[in-house]
UniProtKB/TrEMBL annotation:
Keywords: Disulfide bond, Electron transport, Redox-active center, Transport
Gene3D superfamilies reported in the protein's UniProt record: Glutaredoxin
InterPro entries referenced in this protein's UniProt entry, alphabetically: Thioredoxin, Thioredoxin-like_sf, Thioredoxin_domain
Keyword Electron transport annotated: yes
Protein's name according to its UniProt entry: Thioredoxin
CDD domains to which the protein is assigned, alphabetical: TRX_family
The species this protein was found in: Gelidibacter algens
BP GO annotations: cell redox homeostasis
Molecular function terms, GO-annotated: protein-disulfide reductase activity
Transmembrane segments: none
GO cellular component, one term: cytosol
Similarity remark: Belongs to the thioredoxin family.
Domain Thioredoxin: residue ranges: 1-98
């Protein structure tokens, strides 16, 4: 868990995608997040957390459904959303919390 804390404690916004391989909406969200990263480049870090393999982290952040996205800035959670959003919505959220 300490490695996770290091990952989210950055000046750059860190978008954490809690997912599960068996989740249908996750398959929709994965290419959207790839486009977000292509658009923002170094302006965002995107971390994928498989809830089945990382149950302690999922429990700590009370992730009950997947996909759930959390946005961190300097180690603090600044936004949270469950479900799939459009590329433009995600980009706008990252930019407005920056």
């Amino acid at each position: 868990m300490s490695k996770f804390s290091e990952l989210i404690n950055q000046d750059t916004p860190v978008l954490v995608d809690f997912f599960a391989e068996w989740c249908g909406p996750y398959k929709t969200l994965a290419p959207i997040l790839k486009q977000v990263k292509e658009n923002l480049g170094d302006g965002v870090s995107i971390i994928k957390i498989d809830v089945d393999k990382n149950q302690a982290i999922a429990a700590k952040y009370q992730v009950r459904g997947v996909p759930t996205m959390l946005l961190f800035k300097n180690g603090k959670q600044v936004w949270r959303q469950s479900g799939v959003l459009s590329k433009d919505d995600i980009i706008n959220i990252i930019k407005t919390t920056n």
